[in-house]
Amino acid sequence: MVDLQATIEFCVELFKFHNVDLFQRGFYQIRTSLRCSPKFPVKIEVSVAKNPKNKSESNPASVVNEVAVSKTFQILYRNEEVKLDDIFLFRVHMLLESNKIEESIENADYSLVSELWFTEYESNLNIIQCVSSRTLAVKLNTIKGLHYHLPVLFDYFHLSSISMTVHACVVSLHEPYIKKTILDYIQGCTPKTTKGRQKFYHKTNHSYNHTNNHHHHHHH
After folding, report:
1. pTM above the 0.90 mark?
2. Is pLDDT at 46 greater than 70 in this prediction?
3. What are residue 206's phi and psi, to 5 degrees?
């Protein structure tokens, strides 16, 4: 039975873009999205974290259709480095069963997609297009979380890289919001269900405490 909701927070920081030998001069963006395929429905919220290093920019970092979009930057020379310092937050809300917490969280197949977008003129950002894409599979540990610092290298025709840091951890574990309101509503109509609810809480806590203890574990 799906009786818990977990929230996992991924923090992705884009540091430096390094142009080795890009084919075209012009304006570029890095777009990042998080994908995961858990057993039960999932909702991902994306937001831009404020970074004091970034003052006023003509095209700052933003979120477009649940995709994190870096600031727009111009590349003119070979071996040019551009500091991005854009930070994004991906909040993953996942439904799961209380007797399979770690399993559900760790087997959800997380991957970070990094795309390089290009347009020749800054004045025309609506015709910007994706020219290269990389997918990074990430492994999340329920207790330790996840901590990566790595360069993502784009393809042979777009010789360039972005250095990024990824941190993730489980930030909360609680009863699903939707379920709670339904339970409260039922309880409001019929006081008799309180007994059943206490039993439900007891069961949840019981199976949660025994998740790591497989020998004595019995499914309810």
Report:
1. no
2. yes
3. -60, -50
